[in-house]
Amino acid sequence: SGADSHAEFLVLGAGPGGYTAAFRAADLGLKVTLIERWDRLGGVCLNVGCIPSKALLHVAKAMDEAQALSAHGVSFAAPTVDLDGVRSFKDGVVGKLTGGLNGLARKRKVTVVRGTGRFAGPNVIRVETAEGTQTVSFDHAVIACGSEPVRLPFLPDDSRVIDSTGALALADIPERMLVVGGGIIGLEMAQVYDALGSKITIVELMDQIIPEADRDLVMPLMKRIEKRYERVLLKTKVTKVEATDAGLVATFDGPNGIFEAEFDKVLVAVGRKPNGALVAADAAGVTVDERGFIPVDTQMRTNQPHIFAIGDVVGQPMLAHKAVHEAKVAAEVACGEKSVFDARVIPSVAYTDPEIAWVGMTEAEAKSKGVKVRKGAFPWAASGRSLSLGRDEGVTKLLFDPDTKRIIGAGITGPNAGDLLAEAVLAIEMGADAEDLALTIHPHPTLSETLGLAAEVSEGTITDL
Ligand code: FAD
Question: Burial level of 338, CB count in 10 A (0-12/13-18/19+)?
Fold first, then answer.
C-alpha cells in the first residue's frame, strides 16, 4: 500500500474507548496499532477527567468528615493545605493507572504511535509525530477521539478563566471562584475548591442543579451547598465577564435582576463537545454531523462498514463506562463476531457529597412521557448504617412498571450512592421485579439494605416509615 506500516485494527485515540478496543482486538488475535497525540495513554478519563477528579474529591471529603467529627466528640485543629502534596497524590494515582496501560499495551504487542492522526483515505491514516509524518494503512479502524470542553465565546481570553483541565491542575486556591454550569463536572470541582478554602459561586441556567436528575435526588446536595457556598444562582445566566487587574467581574442576569460580582477565577463547566471534526473523517468517507458527532449503528459501525466510532464522539451520555462497552463491541464485530451494543440502561453518578446516582427512567421523564410508574422510596433517616455515619439526608428510590412490577429506574442520593446503584443497574438488565429485590437478603447494617427496603415500600409490605 506504500504506507510505513500496516494494522489489521487501527485505533485513533487512547481514552477508555480506544485502549479498550485496542486491547480487546489484540486479545482476539489482531495486529493492532493505537495512535495517541498525548504523552500518556488513558485519554480524558485517566488524565484530566474521572480519575484525577475522584482523587481530589477523596481529599475534600476526608477533610469535611474530619471537621464533621467535632459534632461527635472529636475535634482536630484547622487543616493546613500543602497544595504540592495534594497535587502529587492526584498525579501519583493518574501515573499508576496510565503507566499500567503502557504495560498492558506492551504485553499485548499493541503498537503505540505518538502523534496526531488524520485520515488520508478510506484505508490509510497520516500521523504527525515528533519525528515527522508516518502513514499507517489499516483493514479496520476505530475512531475514539473523544471530546473537549465547550468554550463560551463571550468570556475573555485570560489565564484566570479555566476549564475542568485547568481546575484539576490545581495551580492555586483562588479566594473567590465562579463556576459556570451546575452540572456534574462543575459541582465536583466546586466541592474540591470549597474544601480547600475557596468561596464558591455556582451559576446555572436551569431551575435546578444537575437538571437531568430528579429534583428529590438533588435536593440534599442543594441544601448542603446553599449553606456552604457564597451563592448558588439558578435560572441565571452570566452575560459578561470583564478581566481587570484586580479580578474577573461577572455580570449575572437572573430572577433577582442584573448584578455584578468579582472573582479571582472563573471555571467554565457548561458541557463537552465531540472531536469528530478534528480527524479528517471525510477523507475516509466517514460522515460527521454538524455538531461533530459521528453517527454509528448498534454495531458501532460508521457509514463506512470497516470504520467504527465509539465513546464521547458518538454521542451522549459522554461517560467512560459507555465508551468501554462500545469499544468491546467494535473490536468483536471487526473480528467477525455478532456483537451489538444493547445496554438497557447507562448509569450516571455525581461524585459530590452526598453522591447522586441514577439510572433508567426518572420520575420527571415518566411524567413528561405520560408513563405510569409505581414508586418505592426509602429515606436514609431510617437506615441505621446511614445514621451511624452521621448522615440522614439520603434517599433510595426505585421505579417499577405497575403491571409487570419490573424495575425500570432507580435513583440514590447519599454517601456511596454510585457504588450502591450498581445493584439497581443489574436488576434492570436482568428484568428483576420488586419482589426479587425485596426478597433478596441484603447484609445488615449496610446502605445496600435501602434497595431491598425501597422495593418493600413499593410492594406495600412496609407502609409506616
Ligand atoms: P477520551 O477519553 O476523550 O479520549 C480521546 C483520546 O483521543 C485523547 O487521549 C485524545 O488525546 C486522543 N485524540 C483525539 N484526537 C486525536 C487525533 N487526531 N490523533 C491522536 N489522538 C487523538 N466519565 C465517567 O464515566 N465518570 C466520571 O466520573 C467522569 N468524570 C469526568 C470528570 C471530568 C472533569 C471530565 C472532563 C470528564 C469526566 N468523565 C467521566 C467523562 C469521561 O472522561 C469521558 O466520557 C471519557 O474519557 C470518554 O472516553 P473516550 O475514549 O471516548 O475519549
Answer: exposed
Which ipTM score applies to this complex? 0.99
Specify the ligand 1 atom closest to the Cα of 43. 9
Assess whether the C-beta atom of 323 lies below 6 angstroms from ligand 1. Answer: yes
Testing ligand 1's pocket by substitution, the residue of 34, 38, 44, 313 carrying the most ligand atoms inside 8 A of its CB is 44
Q: What does pLDDT average to in each consecutive run of 10 residues of the chain (465 residues)?
A: 92 98 98 98 98 98 96 95 98 98 98 98 98 98 98 96 98 98 98 98 98 98 98 97 97 96 98 96 97 98 98 98 98 98 98 98 97 97 97 98 97 98 98 97 98 94 73
What is this structure's pTM?
0.97
3-state secondary structure the chain: CCCCEEEEEEEECCCHHHHHHHHHHHHCCCCEEEEECCCCCCHHHHHHCHHHHHHHHHHHHHHHHHHHHHHHCCCCCCCCCCHHHHHHHHHHHHHHHHHHHHHHHHHCCCEEEECEEEEEECCEEEEEECCEEEEEEEEEEEECCCEEECCCCCCCCCCCEECHHHHHHCCCCCCEEEEECCCHHHHHHHHHHHHHCCEEEEECCCCCCCCCCCHHHHHHHHHHHHHHCCEEECCCEEEEEEECCCCEEEEEEECCEEEEEEECEEEECCCEEECHHHCCHHHHCCCCCCCCCCCCCCCCECCCCCEEECHHHHCCCCCHHHHHHHHHHHHHHHCCCCCCCCCCCCCEEECCCCEEEEEECCHHHHHHHCCCCEEEEEEHHHCHHHHHCCCCCCEEEEEECCCCCEEEEEEEEECCHHHHHHHHHHHHHHCCEHHHHHHCCCCCCCCCHHHHHHHHHHHCCCCCC
Q: What is the pLDDT of residue 465?
A: 67
Q: Could you tell me the distance, in angstroms and rounded to a whole number, from the CA of residue 167 to the centre of ligand 1?
A: 16
